[in-house]
């Protein structure tokens, strides 16, 4: 086989491999090339973030407006601190909006839903959503249900 | 009584032989990779081997990838249907391929196709005294013949594994979206949400690199170490496929335990 | 004994073992310069091993192997590289590189050891191929050549660098009479024309004795005898005699060790 053709085919092969890596990175794994300029950061404390993970969706009215960037434990307030990246063009979130951790479907994954408040002030980069609703944990629900039935009998 | 002692002794001898072979192969690997060949354009030798090992394996990798992706989608759909979670088929296909099947199946196919070819080629060179001739002329066969093949294997197989995953996911999409009616948006969106580049794609790639090293090393060593007769070569070729496959499966377990 | 003190290769007290088998036990072999020396012996006696020891592919357990005064096993990598430039070896199977054509095969040693320009390399390759009668085959690939032709190309490759020492490993095995004749003639011709020293390892008595100036007969890890072919033919040593005369029975027995013949037959009868 001629050297030139050989080199060309090998070159194409290597390119195909690298292209495959690129496809896997961008189309399959959802790695985004967005820079920080496209989003701004909003914080929220939750008593219980169970089930929520980084890269979970942040939605409003059912529309995805951002992503959870990081979840850390706040040592001082004993809560979970969720750091969200909200798309920069969604810049009219009232300061008293509520952030709840909700489940997609009955056994689906957790995501954050933001309900609109009424304040004139809007959230900016680094602001915190104060009104939060934690994730519903199945055991607590059952416990509450049992407690209710017991107290009703009294 | 003597029979038992003899059998234990022969087991011990086999064990020592195995350890000696592993030692030989380690020295062999080191000598092949350390330093460059005195003669010969290393780059063009590498390119030739990349063609022989990589490009020529594309056919079997792509065809197998597509079929495995399609089967995964089909079976996955059937199983997820019972839980009402058909939309998760996309992430199932992707995760299975990226984490496990991509690296492992590629490595097994590579061992069978490219590995056995390597062993036979090198074994034949040994049997026809080409390796000795090189030595007598003053060229170290480890650096001139073996090293380009090793490096080509290390580079080509991970690339093949990546291509395998991509065509597999695409094959799965064909079955799931076009045939089974899963909504195309769910297939890809769910996949993108659950597949993480670092944890899944890169870990799978690391596996592929490790497998590539082990398979190529075994293939090349078996060829170099074989008895220079036609039976010796055929035995060595069989050994390559068997040992390489076992090694890949064993390492897969260890790596999976470490990574996931 | 040849009247010369000039030995290009001098093996002194060389011992070589393979596993537990002793291949050579304290042997002394001296190869006179400029002559064809044959090394003969029964199969498996280590003749090929001898060539590999001289060519530094194997190292002896003890003893010295002097080639042109240098002790081969002790040479460093660079020195060995230049020493190999002066040795040519023709392997039993020719051992041409199957992925290169005839021209590239013969040019290979030139490219490894020299930085000669392409046209000079071409001239030399043509010269060498002309010497072995295969200049016309210059573009062919090894698998297009017959066995005898392969060996001749390998010979051209072995003399490409004009070595001082040529080693032939079983050159006559499996050759038809014409190829045999060609090879015999070439070995003699090249040796005399190029002033080489040739070592021919073979168990083919007739051909080797016809061109060798001197013979060594090796067996059982030792040198059984050495001398001019005519002298050895008339030797008193029974082992040399058996080998040179081709006698089926003698020090190397005809019968594989077995129990007594009569007992063997009788036992079989009884068991039935």
Q: Summed up, what is this model?
A:
Chain B: It is found in: Cell inner membrane. Chain A is of the alpha/beta class and 154 residues long.
Fraction of residues in H or I helices of chain C = 25-40%
Average pLDDT of chain C works out at 87
Tally of helical runs of chain B? 9
**Helix-strand sequence of chain C:** EEEHEEHEHHHEHEHEEHHH
Q: Strand fraction band of chain C?
A: 15-25%
The helix count of chain C comes to: 10
Query: Which range does the strand content of chain B fall in?
Result: under 5%
Order of helices and strands of chain B: HHHHHHHHH
**Low-pLDDT segments, ≥5 res of chain C:** none
Distance between the termini of chain C: 62 Å
Number of domains of chain B: 2
Q: Into which percent range does the helicity of residues of chain B fall? A: over 70%
- Helical/strand content category of chain B: mainly alpha
Which pair of chains has the greatest number of interface residues, and how are they split between the two chains? A-B, 24 and 30 residues
Computed structural class of chain C: alpha/beta
Largest sheet of chain B: none
* Low-pLDDT segments, ≥5 res of chain B: none
Largest sheet of chain C: 6 strands, mixed
How many strands appear in the DSSP assignment of chain C? 10
**Order of neighbouring strands in the sheet with most strands of chain C:** 6-7-8-3-9-10
């Amino acid at each position: 086989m001629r050297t030139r053709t050989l080199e060309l085919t090998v070159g194409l092969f290597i390119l195909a491999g690298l292209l495959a890596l690129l496809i896997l990175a961008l189309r399959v794994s959802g790695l985004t090339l967005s820079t920080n300029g496209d989003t701004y950061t909003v914080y929220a404390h939750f008593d219980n973030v169970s089930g929520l993970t980084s890269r979970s969706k942040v939605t409003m009215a059912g529309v995805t407006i951002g992503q959870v960037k990081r979840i850390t434990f706040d040592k001082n307030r004993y809560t979970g601190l969720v750091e969200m990246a909200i798309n920069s063009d969604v810049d009219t979130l009232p300061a008293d909006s509520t952030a709840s951790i909700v489940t997609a479907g009955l056994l689906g994954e957790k995501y954050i839903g933001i309900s609109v408040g009424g304040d004139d002030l809007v959230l900016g980069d680094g602001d915190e959503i104060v009104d939060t609703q934690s994730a519903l944990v199945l055991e607590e629900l059952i416990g509450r249900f049992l407690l209710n039935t017991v107290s009703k009998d009294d | 009584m003597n029979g038992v002692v003899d059998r234990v002794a022969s087991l011990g001898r086999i064990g020592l032989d195995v350890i000696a072979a592993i030692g030989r192969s380690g020295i062999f690997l080191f000598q092949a990779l350390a330093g460059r060949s005195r003669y010969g354009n290393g780059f063009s030798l590498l390119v030739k081997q990349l063609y022989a090992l990589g490009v020529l394996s594309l056919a079997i990798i792509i065809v197998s990838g597509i079929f495995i992706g399609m089967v995964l989608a089909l079976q996955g759909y059937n199983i997820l249907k019972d839980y009402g979670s058909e939309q998760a088929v996309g992430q199932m296909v992707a995760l299975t391929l990226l984490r496990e099947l991509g690296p492992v199946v590629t490595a097994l196919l590579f061992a069978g196709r490219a590995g056995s070819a390597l062993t036979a080629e090198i074994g034949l060179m040994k049997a026809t005294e080409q390796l000795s001739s090189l030595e007598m002329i003053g060229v170290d066969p480890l650096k001139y013949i073996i090293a380009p093949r090793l490096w080509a294997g290390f580079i080509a197989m991970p690339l093949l594994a990546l291509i395998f995953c991509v065509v597999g996911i695409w094959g799965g999409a064909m079955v799931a979206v076009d045939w089974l009616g899963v909504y195309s948006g769910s297939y890809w969106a769910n996949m993108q949400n659950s597949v993480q580049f670092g944890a899944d794609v890169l870990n799978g790639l690391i596996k592929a690199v490790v497998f590539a090293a082990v398979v190529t090393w075994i293939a090349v060593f078996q060829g170099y170490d074989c008895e220079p007769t036609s039976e010796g070569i055929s035995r060595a070729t069989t050994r390559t496929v068997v040992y390489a496959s076992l090694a890949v499966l064993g390492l897969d377990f260890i790596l999976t335990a470490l990574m996931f | 004994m040849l009247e010369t003190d000039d030995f290009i290769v001098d093996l002194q007290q060389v011992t070589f073992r393979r596993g537990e088998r002793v291949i050579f036990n304290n042997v002394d072999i001296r190869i006179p310069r400029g002559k064809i020396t044959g090394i003969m012996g029964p199969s498996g006696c280590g003749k090929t091993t001898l060539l590999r020891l001289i060519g530094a592919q194997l190292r002896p357990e003890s003893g010295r192997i002097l080639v042109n005064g240098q002790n081969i096993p002790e040479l460093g990598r660079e020195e060995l590289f230049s020493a190999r430039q002066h040795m040519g070896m023709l392997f039993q199977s020719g051992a041409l590189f199957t992925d290169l054509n005839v021209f590239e095969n013969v040019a290979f040693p030139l490219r490894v050891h020299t930085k000669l320009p392409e046209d000079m390399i071409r001239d030399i390759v043509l010269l060498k191929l002309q010497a072995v009668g295969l200049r016309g085959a210059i573009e062919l690939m090894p698998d297009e050549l017959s066995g005898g032709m392969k060996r001749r190309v390998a010979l051209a490759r072995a003399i490409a660098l004009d070595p001082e020492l040529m080693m032939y490993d079983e050159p006559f095995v499996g050759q038809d009479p014409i190829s045999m004749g060609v090879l015999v003639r070439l070995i003699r011709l090249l040796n005399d024309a190029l002033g080489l020293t040739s070592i021919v390892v073979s168990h083919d008595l007739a051909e080797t004795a016809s061109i060798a100036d001197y013979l060594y007969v090796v067996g059982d890890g030792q040198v059984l005898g050495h001398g001019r072919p005519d002298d050895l033919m008339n030797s008193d040593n029974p082992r040399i005699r058996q080998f040179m005369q081709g006698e089926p029975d003698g020090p190397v027995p005809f019968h594989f060790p077995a129990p007594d013949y009569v007992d063997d037959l009788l036992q079989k009868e009884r068991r039935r």
